[in-house]
Amino acid sequence: MNTQLLHPTTEGIREAARLLRDGQLVAVPTETVYGLAADALNPTAVASIFTAKGRPMDNPLIVHIADIKDWAPLVKKIPDNARRLAEAYWPGPLTIILPAADCVPNEVRGGLSTVAVRFPSDPVAQAVILHSGCPLAAPSANRSGSPSPTNAARVMEDMQGRIAAVLDGGDSAVGVESTVISLCDDTPRLLRPGGITPAMLEDVLGPIDIDPAVTHALEQGQTAASPGMKYKHYAPNAHIRLVKGSADSYIRYVNTHADDGVAALCFTEDAPFLNVPTVCYGHRNNPLEQAHTLFDALRQLDELGATTVYAASPNPQGVGLAVYNRLIRAAGFDIIHVPHIIGLTGPTGSGKSTVASIWQDAGIPIIDADFVARQVVTPPSACLEALVMTFSAAILHTDGTLNRQELAARAFKNPEATAALNAITHPAILKAIDDEIARLANDGHTLLVLDAPTLFEANADTRCHSIVAVLAHEDNRRSRIIARDALDDDAADRRMAAQQENTFYARNGVTVLYNNDTLDSLREQAITFLRNEKRRCSL
Ligand code: TXA
Ligand code: MG
User: Smallest Cα–Cα separation from 7: which of 147, 211, 152, 134?
Assistant: First the structure.
């Protein structure tokens, strides 16, 4: 079959309408995505849609109308809330499901007793429907499982030779498929998010249910309210992995996984910082732009030849919910949580622990590197065994636990011994910190603090997206540690001498909180930093 490319002229629209009346398939532009249309009341024509797409027969189709009076014959009855919803958002990117009238073929309903109806706003779509004189059943015009096409060239990629014609109406404005809502039960149920947001629906309907399949994979044995949700969808050939986290954590994650065949599906502002080939899908705070760009971006990734794609996760609010819904399906629900990590450091007596507890009170989990460091040498411990191999069993108490004084005496004797100590302990501490980060990320935490007095010395700064140093004048620190630890002046001096100078911490990119004033002043600085950091990273 030769697939004609038609243009949205009077002749082009007439020809499309003639083919449709004749029982053939024509891809038509709509404001959401391109649809693969057939006469909805012709069961043979409708059946050929499933063949052309390779679509499972139990996945029902949306019926498109271009005059509100064509709705009533398709459904059993139009309840009041459905009427109000249509008045508010039709024509537009909204599909309403109601119990079906007997005239709707089983092929359209996918065997269900309900029918989905939509009145598109695209003038070309409306003209084709009106000229063909019949409602049009139209799924998205892609091969089943692929990203939906948002322009005629993408339709041709999938459908050339399989359908009679493609009507070229330019780029689809919205870019993701319509919002699908079922009004068959007492409470309206959102089955698929789209250009009409949950808030817009609730403005008209009051509270609605959001089907769990909108944001989560169906569990084994669960039936899909919308059959389309049980199939893998929107997926390019590349394996997509959705990375959830701040911009900083996304960029760092991708750059540390920059292997051959890796590409990034990222926000426009992230691209300059990524060391892999990128395809952008709009700006981070612009869900309309993301929706408009997403499906074409997914197809571009295949043109790049990417095998693994790390996708930046969108904010699932408003139209962003539709973008998120498509991306988790494109990723087959492979989601990586990368929390944003604030490193907290500073010398003894500076008030670092006070800042840690202020942030802990604000609900941020704190990873205490000192605690982790003690744990990695608590028997049974491979790290402790390695220390014994290097420094002899003299570093153990009789009960087999670590004698810290004895280890310190041997390890700080000369620089070589210190280097040997660090070579054993630092990797073990970092590994334990990574495990703790992964555990907290799995629990859903998106922001963590890593409290580490020797953050830089232990290379733990490599795990942090931003770093805060708490510093104070030497006199203040000395009097604080004397009071806190009941030290005499000599002991305090020795302790201070073993610490880094303030200048060591005040390096590039480190935010310094000064603690020379009241506790309230320190608290205010700590809370302000946290607020700004959350805003900066959209957390
Ligand atoms: O924006 C759109 O809706 C596009 C354009 C072409 O209008 N069409 C579209 O159709 O996305 P399709 O077939 O790709 O997606 C229709 C979705 C599927 O998930 C299907 O399972 C669901 O709507 N659906 C259709 N009829 C249904 C019904 N009676 N009950 C539950 N879900 C239904
Ligand atoms: Mg589809």
Answer: 152
The pLDDT of residue 506: 83
- Strand pairing class (189-192; 179-182): antiparallel
Instruction: Please give the backbone phi and psi of residue 475, each rounded to the nearest 5 degrees, phi first.
Output: -60, -45
Find the ligand nearest to 196 CA.
1
Q: How far is the C-alpha of 261 from the C-alpha of 310, rounded, in Å?
A: 11
- Tens of pLDDT, residues 481-522: 999 889 898 988 888 888 888 899 988 789 999 999 999 999
Nearest CA to ligand 1 atom 10: 139
Report residues near ion ligand 2: CB below 5 Å: 140
Beta pairing partners, 399: none
Ligand 1 proximal residues by C-beta, below 6 Å: 30, 32-33, 35, 59-62, 95, 97, 109, 112, 114-116, 118, 138-140, 177-178, 180, 191-192, 226-229
Contact 470, 355 (CB under 8 A): yes
Cα–Cα distance measured from residue 394 to residue 396, given in angstroms and rounded to the nearest whole number: 5
Q: Phi, psi at residue 515, to the nearest 5°?
A: -120, 70
Question: Which residue's C-alpha comes closest to atom 32 of ligand 1?
Answer: 226
The alpha carbon of 386 is separated from its chain's Cα centroid by a whole number of angstroms, namely 41
| The two three-digit tokens of residue 498, written as one number | 């073993």
- Concatenated DSSP letters of 89-143: H-SSSEEEEEEBPTTS-HHHHTT-SEEEEE----HHHHHHHHHHTS-EE--BSSP
Residue nearest to atom 5 of ligand 1 (CA): 35
Q: Are 136 and 122 in contact (CB under 8 A)?
A: no
Peptide bond into 347 cis (omega under 30): no
- Give the number of other Cβ atoms within 10 Å of residue 518's Cβ: 9
Query: pLDDT for 187-241, tens place per residue?
Result: 999 999 999 999 999 999 999 999 999 999 888 777 788 887 776 678 888 999 9
| Spatial separation of the C-alpha atoms in residues 269 and 281, rounded to whole Å | 10
Q: Taken in order 471, 475, 478, 481, is the CA torsion positive or negative?
A: negative
- Give Cβ neighbours of residue 158 (< 8 Å, ≥ 6 apart): 141, 142, 143, 146, 149
| CB 167 within 8 Å of CB 77 | no
The ligand 1 atom nearest the CA atom of 180: 23
Count of all residues that appear for the chain in the document: 539
DSSP character at residue 75: B
Task: Write the residue with the smallest CA distance to atom 6 of ligand 1.
Answer: 35
Cis peptide leading into residue 139 (ω within 30°): no
Residue ID of nearest Cα to ligand 1 atom 31: 226
Question: Considering every ligand atom, which ligand is closest to the CA of 116?
Answer: 1
Ligand 1 atom at minimum distance from 37 CA = 6
